[in-house]
Fold:
Amino acid sequence: MTCHDSINELELSMSRNVGHLEVRELHIEFPGKKDTVRAVDGVEIEVASGEFISVIGPSGCGKSTLLNAVAGFVQPTSGSVNIDGKPITGPGADRGVVFQQYSLFPWKSVLGNVEFGLKLQGVARQVRQDKARHLLKLAGLAAFERHYPHQLSGGMKQRVGIIRALAANPRILLMDEPFGALDTQTRAIMQQILTDLWQTLGISVLFVTHDIDEAIFLSDRVYVMSARPGKIMDVVTIPLPRPRHPDVVVSAEFLEIRAHLRALIRQESLRAFASEAPPTALAA
Structure:
């Protein structure tokens, strides 16, 4: 088998392992000081196999809570969350999770971080290192496999975190504000890298962000959540052709979608402020 054949086999093995997410009538409540706090209220979301779906909404609307329920970190009060028809009851290897914090092991090299999940699965050393190196090459990090996290930039650390999550062959990749701590230029580069990885591997992605432009550029569809308690108040299909060039952000179609989404978020943010602010603040 040639090196090229090996790489193709790795890509195909990952693309076969693509999940179909279904969230149905999801309600999540938490105990408060006085009353129960309803964070998520009847949310329904679907990510078809190989789709890139984003969730946006005003601050505190329950976006991260929703993603944590899909990850298995938060138990629903009612409703269902299924991957390929199987209910999610807790964290599992079928879901890769990437947070804003890099969460890399500082004592492990880049290669060691990426292959860690495969090592836990009992994958033979040579096989897991070959796969880790393949993913590092796709992410433009092949020259840094012996580096340690403290030697990397923020964008490079996040790239390592993404491919570490991908290395374990998850059925879906869950991402919670993964580029929120990066500067504008690095963030744009990371969006392009993520898009390239997604298109190469064909993985399903559920992506939470507060950045409207980011959601439009990356996604097939964007779910818009209302102010708390979070409901889905709109689902916007993104018709922009792929692959998407960075210049698409100044196209008339992009700007029209952005204006629509910004109006929705602004409306909900103002509604949330009006409902929670004391009367003196509203009168000021």
Summary: The longest strand covers residues 36-47. The first helix runs from residue 3 to 16. The chain has one domain: 3-94+170-283. DSSP finds nine helices and ten strands in the chain.
